[in-house]
């Protein structure tokens, strides 16, 4: 009920454009939020892009785009928000969205896997560095999640693995120990926990929320 009220109350919710690859855009958003509410207490770094190809077919443009958004954009958004938290002096919570792909390599997904592994590594390093300011940096590693993006992922697998459309999505869903692909709402509880006082002693961790797909 509290979330529903927030999402329908114009005094408690705003939408602003953000290009995480542009430092000026990040700074503008932080200024807008702090002018309206005085501070940023929680950051969820959720912006990401996906692409795939055999290693010999990976293009520089695809590499740059994935690392610019998934790693560079995540880090400099984190840095800017962390600075605002330090200036305020009350700490805060930062949650970085990684992926089970960051826990392992995949033949067709080399660059995306590498970018999400970098998110896990930066979560560890930033968490260790920023906790002295009372800023908890942690992450969430989803597994396969049923969103519109998966239609694009499925089409790419169909292309590179010579599969009919829909088959890869069905197979990965059936392979999840829980019995189905994840849904966006399956990750809300972990995010709320990491953003709460209950997670004050959780530092530099990335929680797997994947229906049992990966154990670490």
How does this model look, in words?
There is one protein chain. By secondary structure, the chain is an alpha/beta fold. It is built from 7 helices and 4 strands; from the N terminus they run H-H-E-H-E-H-E-H-H-H-E. The protein has helices spanning 2-8, 23-37, 60-88, 110-130, 149-161, 167-175, 188-194; strands spanning 42-45, 92-97, 135-142, 206-209. Strands 1-2-3-4 form a 4-stranded parallel β-sheet, sandwiched between helices. Helix 3 links the parallel strand 1 and strand 2.
List the secondary-structure elements in sequence, H or E: HHEHEHEHHHE
* Percentage of residues assigned to helices: 40-55%
Mass-distribution shape: globular
Given as residue ranges, the uncertain stretches (5+ residues, pLDDT < 50) are none
Q: Round the mean pLDDT to the nearest integer and report it.
A: 95
Oligomeric composition of the shown chains: single chain
Largest beta-sheet characterization: 4 strands, parallel
Residue share in β-strands: 5-15%
- Structural class by sheet pairing and helices: alpha/beta
Q: What is the strand tally?
A: 4
Q: Using only CA atoms, what is the Rg? A: 18 Å
**Head-to-tail CA distance between termini:** 34 Å
């Amino acid at each position: 009920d509290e979330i529903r009220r927030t999402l329908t109350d114009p005094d408690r919710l705003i939408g602003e454009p953000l290009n995480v690859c542009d430092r000026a855009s990040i700074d503008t958003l932080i200024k807008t939020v702090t002018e309206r509410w005085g501070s940023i207490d929680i950051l969820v770094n959720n912006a990401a892009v996906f692409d795939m190809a055999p290693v010999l077919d990976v293009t520089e443009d695809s590499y740059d785009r994935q690392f610019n958004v998934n790693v560079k954009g995540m880090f400099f958004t984190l840095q800017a928000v962390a600075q605002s938290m330090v200036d305020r002096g009350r700490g805060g919570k930062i949650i970085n969205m990684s992926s089970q792909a960051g826990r392992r390599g995949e033949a067709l997904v080399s660059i995306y896997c590498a970018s999400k592994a970098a998110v896990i590594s930066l979560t560890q390093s930033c968490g260790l560095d920023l906790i002295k300011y009372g800023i908890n940096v942690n992450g969430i590693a989803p597994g396969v999640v049923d969103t519109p993006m998966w239609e694009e992922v499925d089409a790419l697998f169909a292309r590179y693995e010579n599969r009919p459309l829909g088959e890869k999505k069905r197979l990965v869903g059936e392979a999840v120990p829980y019995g189905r692909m994840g849904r966006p709402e399956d990750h809300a509880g972990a995010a709320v926990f990491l953003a709460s006082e209950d997670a004050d002693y959780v530092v530099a961790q990335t929680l797997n929320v994947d229906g049992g797909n990966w154990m670490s």
